[in-house]
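Quick one: co-fold with pyridoxal-5'-phosphate.
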Amino acid sequence: MNDIAKLVRPNILKLSPYSTARDEAGGAEGIRVWLDANESPYGEDGINRYPDPMQKRLKEKIAEIENIHAESIFVGNGSDEAIDLMYRIFCTPGEDNAVAIAPTYGMYGVCADINDIEYRPVQLNSDFSLPVERLLAATDGHTKLLWVCSPNNPTGNALPFEQLCELADRFRGILVVDEAYSEFNTASRKGKDLLKGRENVVVLHTLSKAYGLAGARVGLAFSTPFIVSLMNKVKYPYNVNLLSQTKALETLDSVDKIRDNIRSILAERERIGNILPLIDAIEEVYPTDANFILVKVREGRADDLYAHLKDFHIIVRNRSKTPGCAGTLRITVGTAEENDTLLEAIRNFK
Ligand SMILES: *Cc1c(COP(=O)(O)O)cnc(C)c1O
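Sure, here it is.
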């Protein structure tokens, strides 16, 4: 048994997955009459047919864009599916635990609770840098997962590649690096580069942010073919629906447009990042590598500013109660017009 297999729950390791009609047909090539899946013969644009359970075309497209083998790609119903699968594959309820940075994305903790897995948050340093030694010290023989998020939500900062390498190499479980905001991070080496020569890393990406497909629910995980095969075995057979697969393919066919959108968002991030510190109500603007900016409101008045913006029909994320982020609001970078509306409303705050 390889070292990673030893981390997998025994019931998952020996699981025989549900075999779909489409799996058994071994592909659509040459088939003229489909009478295997009790589908309706009536329907438009193929919507009467079950979608490809393994999202072959979508994976080929992603493989090309990301320069990664298709067998190393998992496609899920949002990255939230991949997050939940990590627990279901590696963590025995009531026995195993997961360590994570804090503050960070809430779903790692929620999925731990749902799966009855002890969740051990480790506060980032006060400048939001990675506490490598404290994270490793929080692990024990039952720690299967270590969650980091880079650029981190809600703090916005990307974590240094060398530190992620160190975590992956010293941790005896699976390091999950959530890079939902990867496309906004200009660092030269990122999560995917951690996969080279390592068996214990899972990198999460999503089409929900830079690709503009939050409504389609398409998340990605990159890892070894072994870990990806486990994810495929445990997922719902038809986890990504036909409409979403089609829309994702369409979007990935016009990556140039996406790249333009990313450039606009980065330019706006820089612009409002320069203006926000000049506004009286704002005490601090934290550096960001994502498509949002965390700001600290003066005199602990984050809740007041939040309510004020709401009166202007502007909604931002209130993080003022999050340990480590007291007094802060998280603001997504919008279009130039949206951002001007926001800046104007903040200037009006008394
Ligand atoms: C937005 C976000 C996601 C995206 O989740 P989806 O289920 O793919 O929409 C994942 N991780 C983090 C940290 C996020 O902020």
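If it helps, The first strand starts at residue 73 and ends at 76.
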